[in-house]
Amino acid sequence: MSPALVATPASPQSKMSITNEHPVESQYQKGVKHLYEIGIRRVPRKYILPVSERPNQTHWKTHTTDGSLQLPVIDLSGLHGPRRSQVVRSLASACENYGFFQVVSHGLPNEVISNMMDVTKRFFELPSAEREKYMSADMSKPVRYGTSFNQLKDSVFCWRDFLKLVCNPLEDVLSHWPSSPMDLRGLAVTYAKETKFLYLMILEAILESLGLTTTKNTTADTDDQILSELKDGSQQMFLNFYPPCPEPDLTFGLRSHSDFGILTLLLQDEVAGLQIKHQGRWLAVEPIPGSFVVNVGDQLEIFSNGRYKSVLHRVVVNSSMSRISVASLHSLPSQSAVRPAEKLINQTNPRRYRDTDIAAFLHHIKSCDYQEKGVLESRKLT
């Protein structure tokens, strides 16, 4: 696992060159890595949340004894033997009660994981001019270096930079991926393929847990087209970098949100930052080296007719250490629609969601200021 980047103070000359906040305000669109590199000592106004929404407010704090949450940890090696039914039940319990879980013994080679973390680190260590070749506020671009979440609409920015890589079809997008570091394309392709295989393995078990398959790769009475779309949907990777923040109590790395897709597979370094909302409280997720954090997305909540919940989560930052993560988001194709599986609807469990065009999800994300679960809430039937 790649070590975290330790904060290196900017030179006195670079700090002295920033005499007031206005020059920094004019540069926020370049990203927080740029702001860190020029040696800011105060968080620019664009990143400061209203007082009631800041991390240091009582109702936002964690409430566990040690400030961390041990998510369900699922050993996926059991899917390939007589323990499969037990693992499937564990997945069902995790999706129902947490919306998040961690997987170990998942089959991804350690070398693939460490290489991806290393090349992510090296990308964000590139000179600012090299990274900015891919900077764009256009959320529809298949390859995009960006900051915050929605640069065009967010009224308050988040303390995060990212590189977005659309992964399918690879033959169409690969030539647009960054060519520096020189090995980024090759390592990221390998990682994308491996995480897609892992996603499909977990998805098959989740479908089985819902009663929509009987045994592995054998469909029960359900909508074959929807199942095919679930398996053959889109994949995006987000390489995330959260630099040290001079005033971490004023902002978030990512504000509270749910993921719009089916499942997200998150690889993270050893620096804590991810928090989930569990039973009304914000709890920090303890990193487990070599594991993946997996969470239910909005599309799976709809497909499961509300049995499995997408859960609000956020990222906090700190003043001394940077944090790196790689998120692999899997969703239905943009031309598809998601609806509750017919087999899950009956008199005791009526339909809870309207059919939802995936394009509507994407349009909402692009066109609106920050909202936690706005699209999903709008699709619920009363």
Please describe what this structure looks like.
Helix content is 28%, strand content 20%. It is an alpha+beta fold. The strands form four sheets. It has an eight-stranded mixed β-sheet. Strand 6 and strand 7 (218-219) form a beta hairpin. Residues 1-22, 58-66 and 216-222 have low confidence and may be disordered.
Could you outline the blueprint of secondary structure elements for this entry?
Elements lengths: L11 H5 L5 H4 L6 H6 L30 E2 L3 E3 L8 H14 L2 E5 L5 H15 L3 H4 L11 E5 L13 E6 L3 H4 L10 H26 L3 E3 L2 E2 L4 H8 L2 E9 L11 E4 L5 E6 L5 E5 L2 E5 L6 E5 L1 H6 L9 E3 L7 E9 L5 E2 L17 E2 H10 L6 H5 L4
Parallel strand pairs: 1-12, 2-3
Antiparallel strand pairs: 3-13, 4-5, 5-8, 6-7, 8-15, 9-14, 10-13, 10-15, 11-12, 11-14, 16-17
Helix pairs in contact: 4-8, 5-8
Distance between the termini: 47 Å
Shape: globular
Estimate percent helicity: 25-40%
Beta-strand percent range: 15-25%
**What assembly state would you assign to the polypeptide chains in this entry?**
single chain
- Give the total of beta strands: 17
Strand order of the largest sheet: 2-3-13-10-15-8-5-4
H/E topology pattern: HHHEEHEHHEEHHEEHEEEEEEHEEEEHH
Number of helices: 12
- Structural class call reads alpha+beta
Average pLDDT level: 85
**Which regions are unreliable across 5 or more consecutive residues at pLDDT < 50?**
1-22, 58-66, 216-222
Rg of Cα set: 21 Å
Main beta-sheet strand count, sense and barrel state: 8 strands, mixed
Keywords:
382 residues; alpha+beta; eight-stranded mixed β-sheet; 20% strand
